[in-house]
Specification:
alpha/beta; single chain; twelve-stranded mixed beta sheet; 14 strands; two-stranded antiparallel ribbon; globular; TIM Barrel
Length: about 325
């Protein structure tokens, strides 16, 4: 079996697939309030095309983890059909969702083959939720989280993007929420991928600050870090785990093993890549698996050392998070 190896010798095993660019929220750091143009349906990869590329990467290149993202993946019609197709592959299959409609889909997705679920939630305050998402749906999301726990997924995680002056005063409240629900909360440092391009270094709340806020009430001890992007800490009293993804202050580029496929079939070797390669066109023009594999392998081989956020040579990607996928 071949491997997807970059020029630094890093083997890539984790595939993120955005299955739609559409979302039922307009989060302030994901997409602009106005002017968002959705992809025509004809430009979005079909389930068959997604499954073919996924099988090629799993069987031919050793990918062993797949996560479905968006936009909001639960908006894709007949999603359990795709999940059941991908679940036949020998992979850890997960999904990232905003959970707004998860109370209606959780059990069906679990039965179809989703093992792990990540839920985006940046505030527990209803007024602030409206400000951040432009939708009054906090109660729906909380019901979705409860439904995910009840559905029996192998792991339920809450992803929180922390922004100074926006929601950094809720770090401890969100940590308490995770302890009460027995779900793992992962705080994410604010990255320069917001749609309105307002990111600034002083808006980043560092891992040190985040853990300091939690440690003041709930003593923690670090967990040995593996290849995951999060640095994990366990509550000494047995209250579970909490994590931080320190993308800005402590980049994990040296151990990152992710590749990304966008909803319109663009392949990216890094979240912050400035270039991407088109797989949809050759796929629809009859390219063989070998030809598609060579395109992806060559792209990964060209992967750079890291994103270089905060350095003078950093160049921000032209696409926002909603266009790339999580």
């Amino acid at each position: 079996m071949e491997r997807l190896i970059d020029s630094f010798g890093r083997v890539h095993r984790d595939l993120r697939i955005s299955i739609t660019d559409r979302c039922n929220f307009r989060c302030t750091y994901c997409m602009p309030a106005e002017g968002m143009t959705w992809l025509p349906r004809s430009e979005v990869l079909t389930f068959e095309e997604i499954s073919r590329l996924a099988a090629l990467l799993v069987d031919g290149y050793g990918i062993d983890s797949i996560r479905l993202t968006g936009g909001e993946p639960t908006l894709r019609a007949h999603l359990p059909v795709l999940v059941s197709q991908l679940a036949r592959l020998p992979v850890d299959l997960a999904i990232t969702t905003n959970a707004a409609t998860l109370d209606r889909h959780a059990h069906e997705l679990r039965a179809a083959g989703i093992g792990r679920i990540n839920i985006s939630l940046d505030t527990l305050r209803a007024d602030r939720f409206v400000e951040l998402t432009r939708r009054d749906a906090l109660a729906d999301v909380l019901r979705g989280i409860d439904a995910a726990v009840a559905a029996g997924f192998d792991k339920v995680k809450i992803n929180v993007v922390v922004m100074r002056g926006v929601n950094d005063d809720e770090v401890l409240d969100l940590a308490r929420f995770g302890r009460e629900r027995r779900v793992e909360v992962r705080f994410i440092e604010f990255m320069p991928l917001d749609a309105e391009r307002r990111w600034a270094a002083d808006a980043v709340v560092s891992q040190e600050e985040i853990i300091g806020k939690i440690q003041a009430e709930f003593p923690l001890e670090p967990v040995v870090r593996g290849s995951e992007p999060a640095e994990l800490f366990s509550y000494i009293d047995g209250g579970g785990l909490v994590g931080v993804i320190p993308s800005v202050t402590r980049p994990f580029c040296g151990s990152c093993d992710r590749i990304r496929l966008s909803a319109d079939g663009q392949f990216r070797n890094c979240l912050f890549a400035l270039d991407e390669i088109d797989l949809r066109t050759p796929l629809r023009d009859g390219a063989s698996d070998a030809e598609l594999g060579r395109l992806m392998a060559a792209n990964v081989a060209d992967k750079w050392a890291g994103h270089q956020i905060g350095q003078v040579q950093f160049i921000r990607p032209s696409k926002s998070m909603s266009q790339i996928g999580g």
